[in-house]
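Late entry, written up from scratch paper. The run itself happened at the end of the previous shift, but nothing got recorded in the book at the time, so transcribing now.
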Amino acid sequence: MKLSRSRKMWLVMVICAGLVVAQYQLASSWLITTQQPQPLSETMQTAIDQLQIDDSVMAAVGERVIRDIALQISQKLSSEMCTSVVDSELQPVSGKQTDENGEDIPTLYIITPTYRRPEQLAELTRLAQTLMHIPKIHWLVIEDSRVATPQVTQLLLRTGLSFAHLI
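Output as recorded:
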């Protein structure tokens, strides 16, 4: 039996439509039978239950956690004690920082000119998060305005970085 050209096209379209329907049916039945994800708290609890920690690791983790908590508290206290909106003097860097060879790391000065616009805080926040990973840094933020923006000042205080907020 010889099929005409139009009948061949109809046959191909019907086969494709059948494949699409079969694929849809298989995909929906697979989605229904998949296991639902556990809540985050259950996952965390399971991971904690499976974790076996010896005393030396626990002591090191505990010391690091205590150090992080102390750093956060000192940053919060220092930001609350600051009364001036514009701080043009250097803030002391905590501790003596050295590189792998034991040499003193020089202070890195980052100068950021900025002006008031909708995306200003988002960009400064991203930059601050990056700068927080750099040791011994002093951030100079220079605003192009007559008065300092309170939101920028609060952001600078929250970072805990050594900074100068100039207008």
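The beta strands are 108-114, 137-143, 162-166.
(Scratch paper discarded after transcription.)
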